[in-house]
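Give me structure tokens for this 107-residue protein.
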Amino acid sequence: MIAATDLIYAAALLGWIMLLSSLITKRLYGLWTSRGMAPMRAVYFNRKVIHILAGGLVALLLPLFSSWVVPVSMALLLSLFLYIPRRIGKLMYWFQTPDNAYEIHFL
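Here you go.
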């Protein structure tokens, strides 16, 4: 059985990640590029912002969950959120690049 607290934590984290990836980093991209930063550099920095403020926060808070089911489900949902724009050709240009489908890549 899925705990209600797991759903509350997941909803809050999902909301934060969606806000961060669709609004906050888009504004950062606009700010940085308007001040002369190269667009690809702004994309690179946005990816780092998302890694730290989304991935880092989620990793830090994972022990709050009573089961692995909800976090894994949310990860799959987020994967779909990232895949659909890539599939339909409407990348989120402020952090996705056409030549790099790895939204998380450490090599």
